[in-house]
Amino acid sequence: MSERHPILITGAAGHIGGVSRTIVDMLLEQGHPVRAFVRQDDERARALRQAGAEVFVGDLLTIADVTAAMKGVRRIYFSMSLSPYYTDAVSLMAAAARAQGDIEVFVNMSEFEQSFMTFEKMTAPEEERRSWLGGLVADWSPQQRAHWIAERVLEWAGLPTVNIRAAMFVENPLMTWLALGPLSNGELRLPFGSHRLAPIAGHDVAEVCAKILADPAPHISKSYELNGPELKDMHGFAEDFGAVLGREVTYVPEEVETWNDTYVDPALAEFPHTAEHMKTLTRLIGGGGYRGVTDQLQTLLGHPPKTVRWALENHPRIQKPAAA
């Protein structure tokens, strides 16, 4: 790739270890030029410059900024925090990419729910949808709907898109900082009953995205559904937490709505869109509607994926109580 064509990474000002920031670091280490799109010129932006990235400061909801950020770019990674304006942002990015006309790849960070969030399922009668989704919810969250629309927009725009439909991250708040209080008492309190999950380490998602951005041709027009390597119930996760924290941890199942009232609502009272997404996710998982496991992750990586225990050991919010 010519040095004249930097790879555009949105969401790059996320914390160290976040997917976008890890992609930046991986691409820079491989010698690729990177343009990091950030919202504010703060210490995180300065850290990106020190790492070797070009930093573009702008607003994903301002098409003039998006168009300027894309100038000279051929490869794009799009990610954005949970937001009621998510669909607006991806649509503006798609419009700018389509207008520019020479994009080689648009890597879209989607979500695993899109693997079963089909038009047929979404338009089925309510009781059929509720049964399919595990019985505790009859519809998807506004954020999940936004990802569905985002995939359609990119398809309609005719862009060379790759959708990364990653399963729930090990680093998801449901598994980490929302659970920290009970963990201090040796309890993993979650509303997931006996259901099994295969969450994915953010590091592996970043590595897959970096590989695609570095060599996009084999991946164009594909959607990858990625799970972690370990399918286990919450008792298994409690063992992982115990090993990382150096103390015995016991899984204590909670009723879904009680857990949402106790943990999600107080923590996310100022972010209703995010709260609604998290509560929908707990209902999907707690009802058994979050289904499906694939082996695509290891195939794309070319080596065994990171374990849950590795991801917990390398998570800043878990490292602190572990050190204590």
From TrEMBL:
Pfam families to which the protein is assigned, alphabetical: NAD_binding_10
CDD domains in UniProt: NmrA_TMR_like_1_SDR_a
Database matches in SUPFAM superfamilies: NAD(P)-binding Rossmann-fold domains
Cited InterPro entries: Ergot_Alk_Oxidoreductase, NAD(P)-bd_dom, NAD(P)-bd_dom_sf
Protein name (database record): NmrA family NAD(P)-binding protein
Gene3D superfamilies membership: NAD(P)-binding Rossmann-like Domain, UDP-galactose 4-epimerase, domain 1
Top-level taxonomic group: Bacteria
Residues covered by the NAD(P)-binding domain: 17-216
